[in-house]
Prior knowledge:
Elements lengths: L3 H8 L6 H38 L9 H12 L9 H11 L25 H8 L3 H23 L3 H8 L2 H9 L3 H14 L4 H10 L10 H7 L3 H22 L2 H18 L11 H7 L4 H24 L4 H15 L10 H9 L13 H22 L4 H35 L2
Helix pairs in contact: 2-7, 2-8, 2-18, 3-4, 3-5, 6-7, 6-8, 6-9, 9-10, 10-12, 14-15, 15-16, 16-17, 16-19, 17-18, 18-19
Amino acid sequence: MHNLDDFFMSNLGVEREGQSTRCEQLGSCAGDRALAIACLIVLGITLLLLVPKAIDGNNATGIDFSCFWGAGRMALDGHAAAAYDWQQLRQLILRIHPTIANQPPYPLDENPVPFFYPPVFFFVAAPLALLPFPIAFWIWSAAKLLCWALVTYAIRPRSAAFLLALAVPPVLYDFLVGQSSLLAASLLGSTLLTLDRRPIISGFLIALLIFKPQYGVLLPFVLIATGRWSVFITASLVTSVLILLTGLTFGWDTFEGFRRAATFATQFHLTGGLSWFKLQSIYGVLRLAAFGYELAMALHIVVAAVVATWALIVWRRNIIFPLKAASLLTATLLISPYFAIYDMALLAAALAFLMNAPMAEHGSLLSNRSALRIGYGVLVLSGFAYPIVLAPVGPLICATFMAIIWTQCWQLDVAGAAERSKRFIGAVEP
């Protein structure tokens, strides 16, 4: 039997006794192999369910990417600000997907896909628009999937983590519709990986998250609360430079266009234009339960404040980094009133970080291996259930991950207290 002190010493780079090391490695490898097999099975099922949708001719593939490509096309033509005008962008999208004007589930008059990303995203959209739409879409999807897989592998350099990055339904949802969540998740995961070892790079990566600001809303508070000033200052300076370059390159009127488009998108998404089950947030749950806008938003803000406070407390504590990283990724999703099913790929990164946490002692309330099984199972089952149950599953998944993280923190506290007690007794005994 091994104890938690072995793992703490391992994290500090201290060599352990050979037999204990071999036991831990065997247990870890066995757990990784089991997870890898589970991921292969889930990935096979996911591909069987979703790939036919990409080739059945219903024009669903790349529908969200069409607004990126269309916006990039307008920027290349010198009319970047016009990309924020839905009617103009709609005409361009209809030329890409001419049969979806009134075809469920994507009638563009009822379910618009406007471009409401910050203007800095034109630096991504414009180069992609140099290519024909189908080629641009597959390059975009393949590139962000590769980035995502590599970042997850960097978090946990095992084949199980690589497969985990691919074998959760939200990842395939993002891939097929051409959304940007995998790119944002890759940036956030890279930010956490470089936070202490490469703070300047970490700050640069945070600045790049400006294209999807809801992913970075909690980061400034964490940086300030933990005194990581070099990261904070770098992120602030690089963000300012990006805004300046955007205005000089695509025109300052793009910022006014973005303001109007963001207002339209907020009203559309949060006042009933979008089906409530598509909002994977506390706000979405409350609106589905027939709460009014004011009350639902007020309650969501209360929950978001509690979750943010919980995450900051975790970061202020002297605990292992994987639990801190997982807490930030989980809290990031719960804070925003608007996030979709594909945004929950962030939780796969949280699982990869949790795989690096020390295994609890035998007899603990929840072993690390059991926690991973629960987290992965809930993420997969809820992901598959999403298009069937027509209810937000995001809060349930996030609550499960918060419970796992809290339990792991508590168990480490107990183990640490027990170890300190043993050392104290050993010191006072004659």
